[in-house]
Every structure is written in C-alpha cells, then in structure tokens.
Amino acid sequence: MFRDITIGQYYKADSFVHKLDPRIKILLTLWFIVIIFICKTFFSLALMILLVTVSIAFSKVPFKMFLKSLKPIIPIIIFTCIINMLYIKNGDVLLEFWKIKITSEGLNTALFMTIRIITLIVCSSILTYTTVPTMLTDAIERLLSPLKVFHIEVHTLAMMMTLALRFIPTLIEEIERITNAQKARGANFESGKLIQKIKAMIPVLIPLFVSAFSRAYELAFAMSCRCYRGGEGRTRMKQMKLSYKDLIAVFVFVLTTAGVILFNIYLKSFSF
Amino acid sequence: MSVVLETRDLSYIYSKGTAYEVAAIENINLKIEKGELVGVIGHTGSGKSTLIEHFNGILNPTKGTVLLDGKDIWEDKTKIRNVRFKVGVCFQYPEYQLFEETVYKDIAFGPRNMKMSEDEIDKTIKKVIKFVGLNESYLDKSPFDLSGGEKRRVAIAGVMAMNPEVLVLDEPSAGLDPRGRNMILSLIKNYQKETGCTVIVVSHSMEDISKISDKIIVMNKSKLAFYDTVKNVFSHAEELSEMGLNIPEITKLFLMFKEKGFDVKTDIFTIEEAKNELLKLLGKGGLQCSGT
Predict the structure, then answer these.
(1) What's the whole-model pTM score?
(2) Which CATH number is B157's domain given?
(3) Phi and psi of A150, rounded to 5°?
(4) pLDDT 10s digits, A202-227
(5) Which positions of chain B have pLDDT values less than 70?
(6) Domain count of chain B?
(7) Residue B223 lies in a domain
(8) Is residue B101 a part of any domain in this protein?
(9) In Å, how far are A135, A243, B274 from A139, measured between CA atoms?
(10) Most buried by CB count within 10 Å: which residue of A57, A238, A271, B233?
(11) For A262-272, what is the mean pLDDT?
C-alpha cells in the first residue's frame, strides 16, 4: 500500500536537459518562476508556453508524465478559476443570473491564472524529472555555499537532506514489513474508529523508530570509519562543470525574457 | 492423513499492469498434510517468501486459490483475520516486530487480538516461553534488552502463542551462529512433536532443512520444482545442483559410496546417522580396517 508513493520522480533518459548542470537547472527554474509572474499579456504567456514545450521536447520525458504531475493540483486550479470568475466585476458582463455575474475580465484573469499555475508546475516537474535527487541536493549545497560567510553549515544541511532522501524507500519497505508481521499476529488496521486506528499504528511505529535509530547509529559509525568529518576539505567524485549546453540554455532564457518584456510593453493594447 | 493447507494453480504477479510486471510464483499446486514438518527451499528470489505470504492472506493471489481445511481463505474477506490466527506466520528477522514494554505483553499481542481470556493468555504464554527454550524470568524483561537470538525466540513465541493449526517460519535461523541455528531448529522440531501442529519452515540451507523436515518443497524460478520426502528429493542431486542448490555434504558422501558399489542407505542427513550406517557397513565386513 505504500509502494505507490514516489518521492524522487526521476525519469531516466539521455537528453539535452538531463545533461545540463543541476545548478543551472535550479537557477533557470527559479528564473522561469520569476518571469511567469512578470508576464502581463497573453502574448508573453504564449512565449512562456513555447519555452516549456521546447524544454519538454528536449528532455525526452513523455508528455504523459507531466499530465500525471498536474493531476494532484487540479482542485487548486478549479478553485482559483472559480474565485477569479466570481470576484472580478470589471469588464463586459457575459453571463448574469441570480447573484452571479461573470465578466469578460473575470474570465480573462481566470484563464491567465490557470496557464500560470500549469506552466509553473510543469516547469518544476522538468527539473525533478531530469535530475537525480542526490544531484539536486548537491547542487543546492553549491548554490548555498556563499552562506558559509554567516557560519551556516551548508554541507551538513545538504548531507542531511541527501540521507533523508536516501532512506525514504528503505523506511517505506520497513513499514511494509512490520505491518505484515503485525497483521500476521492479528493486528487490525482496516476497521475501527479513528482512535482505534491510531492505536493500531503503535505496534508499527515503535519498531520503526527502534530500527530507524539503530540504522542512524550504524550509518554514523560507518561514516566515521571512512573518516567522514564534515564538509571541510572534502573533494568530490562527480565534479559539476558548466558546458556549452548550459550556455545555450541560459541564452534561450535571456531571449525569452527579452521577448516577454517587449510583449509586455508593446502588445499591451492587444490584451483580450 | 488429512490435508490442512492446499493451493490450486496459485500465481502471483508483482506490479501487474505496469512495465515492471514480474511473476513471483506460477501455478503452484500443493497439498500439505496435518502434523507434518515441511521444509521450503529455493534460491534467493525463487518465490519462497511470496508463497508463504499467501498462506495467511497477506497477499491476495492473482490467480488460483489457497484452501485451509478445504475452504477458500478469501471466501469472506472480512474473516481474513481468522485465517491469520489459524495459520501463524513468522516472517524473516521477526525480532524487528517486537514493540511492547515487556516480553510478556509482546507475546500476548496475538492472543489479545484473538480475544482470548486473560487466564488462557497467561497459561499459553507460560507454555510457549518454554517451547522457545527460555524461562519465566524473561517475561518481565524488556524485549529490547535481550540478545539477538533471544529476541528472535521471543518473536517466534509470539506467533506460537496464537495456537495456530499451521505454523509458518520464514528463515528462522538466518543470521544466527551455528549454535543458535541448531537450537532454533531443534526447538521447532520439538514443538511439532509435542503439539502435533503442522509446521512449514522456509530456508535456503539444505543442511538445516534436511535435519528436521518430513517433506521438502523445492522452489525454482517461481515454479514448484519438487515436493516430496527428503530422500526422494535428494535423489535428484544433479537437478538440484543445476538450480544452484546443494544437497548436504554428508548425503553426497553416501551417494558416492553407493555409486562405488557399497551397500549403504542414502538418506543420511546427520553425523549420528552417518556414524551408525558406517559402523553397520564395517560390521558386515564390507571394508577392511587396519588397527581394529
């Protein structure tokens, strides 16, 4: 029952986007989020959609996967749509009945917001689909390394994140195993009231904590056996190097941003 | 003898409908008779564990049925817990399932779920703690203070305490030292003899299995390869070694004797049996020994 949860949703493929430096990918994703909020006209939005579509094409991740990642946020999209349509009263009235008035501007805004949310989610999905979780934390560590000036232990934080990600599947397996063992002794997880259901989890949670703690001790021991002593002076097996591909990606983003700003200024009057 | 557990065309497919579809077991037909001790052996990934997870309804078969006392265990989904009380399964490394403050309370978990009366629970616990070779002084200890082998035995006692008709143990001796292994095995054999309970033991060690089992189930590549008495299974020595399974060294030796023309039995699995058989052979004057 716990198998369906996917945390790292990496999609293995050999593509242009996969090969980009993870640091650049994170920065570009942030950049994308900023521009999507700068967009003021449908023309600039269209440009962003084009950028997302091209990125998907170059990532070799099947389109189906993105639809899957959009599924959980459908309620949020519908909610924003309704709120926008009901509360914006400016513009021409398109439909009016009882106390509800739907205006052209309301419809416009609703559509605008929907596209914004969808592109936002799809864009961040491209990042997680094309980057291994450990590479992501690694890249975050590098990007945050200037914070060392303020005595923040960036390496420790990143290592903690990596370890947490690494142990999620292990713990899921463990939960499944303990649940089965307790089921075999007649534990009842399915029926009963809420309180009873919570109580029924105790025989699973206690062994889980016990084994998680012993795993943590063992891991700490194994790490110190291999002379791990934090980030100081630590070198890396996988060096992150910028390549011409990253340059191309950045260049594309610069062009798109320029396009968005131009459209914002000159095509404003064409707004619906 | 009556059949207690039966499987008909039992198949199970993991991640059905996805690209990762794997058949863990295919068309398994078995009849396990009451009171027997059956060993299940097979290579890692041969489907042993998947098979036993069907015996108490942890897994629901993709195809086929499991019958307990002639009744399909999935006939009434809401009664699956009753099946779990009748078929007690102790999974691999059961020491990780301990959670209570005292050994007593932990062993009582199963019986309490069965709604046994406190008197009965008390009696049962005192009985099973002896079955696993521990004494009553352990009952007030915390299970987390025990040694690995002791924890394992407490966990097994927790399943025995449900008085199951069929006791299934998945790799009960895994990760223990030779002394611990022998101890667990003889406890299991003893339990079967004293209670008359049907016992199924999964292992990948032929030596362990052959010492205690009446019959052996050999699993190979998710299919049932053999299901027969220990002696008959070992007569397929070559096929077994092709499956990556080895018959015990001692049995191999006697098979070799037989091949050389000596009149010996080939169902020899323990040192004791080997000694007797050799003495018999020497007594007959089949071999000339110097010095005696």
Answers:
(1) 0.73
(2) 3.40.50.300
(3) -90, 20
(4) 999 999 999 999 999 999 999 999 98
(5) 1, 17-19, 284-292
(6) 2
(7) yes
(8) yes
(9) 6, 15, 65
(10) B233
(11) 69
> To which residue do tokens 């991740």 refer?
A61
- Mean pLDDT of the residues in chain B: 87
Regarding whether B259 and B214 lie in a shared domain, the answer is no
B282 in the same domain as B156: no
pLDDT at A3 over 50: no
For tokens 């002791």, the residue is B150
Burial of A92 (0-12, 13-18, 19+ CB in 10 A): exposed
Residue B243 domain-assigned?
no
pLDDT in tens, A98-143: 777 778 888 888 888 899 999 998 898 888 888 888 788 888 888 8
Task: For residue B136, give both structure tokens.
Answer: 């009553």
Q: Are residues B43 and B142 in the same domain?
A: yes
Of B81, B90, B144, the CB nearest to A186: B81
- Residue A65: both structure tokens together: 């996967």
Q: What value does the CA radius of gyration of chain A take, rounded to a whole number of Å?
A: 24
**pLDDT (average), residues A33-50:** 88
Say if CB B59 and CB B221 are below 8 A apart.
Answer: no
- Given A174, A185, A203, which is nearest B159 (Cβ)? A185
Contact across the interface for B113 and A184, Cβ inside 8 Å:
no
For residues B174 and B292, state if they share a domain.
no
B239 CB-side CA count, 13 A: 11
Indicate if the alpha-carbon torsion angle B221, B225, B231, B232 is positive or negative: negative
Please report residues of A whose CB lies closer than 8 A to that of B97: 178, 181-182, 185, 203, 207
- Tell me, yes or no, whether B157 and B283 share the same domain: no
ipTM exceeding cut-off 0.90 for this assembly = no
pLDDT of res. A268 = 66
Domain shared by B205 and B265, yes or no: no
**CA distance linking residue B185 with residue B8, whole number of Å:** 29
Regarding whether B252 and B175 lie in a shared domain, the answer is no
Range of the domain at B48: 3-230
Closest alpha carbon to B157 in B96, B99, B88, B101: B88
Establish, for the pair of chains A and B, how many residue pairs have beta carbons separated by less than 8 Å: 58
The pLDDT tens digits of the residues spanning A216-260 come to 999 999 999 998 887 777 777 777 788 888 888 898 989 988 988
Tokens of A166: 């690494």
Is 80 exceeded by the pLDDT of residue A149?
yes
Residue B186 sits at φ, ψ, to 5 deg, of -70, -30
Q: Where are the domains of chain A?
A: 16-131+242-270, 149-225
CA distance A88 to A100: 11
* Closest Cβ–Cβ partner in B56, B84, B96 for A178: B96
| Predicted pLDDT of residue B259 | 82
A242 Cα distance to chain centroid:
23
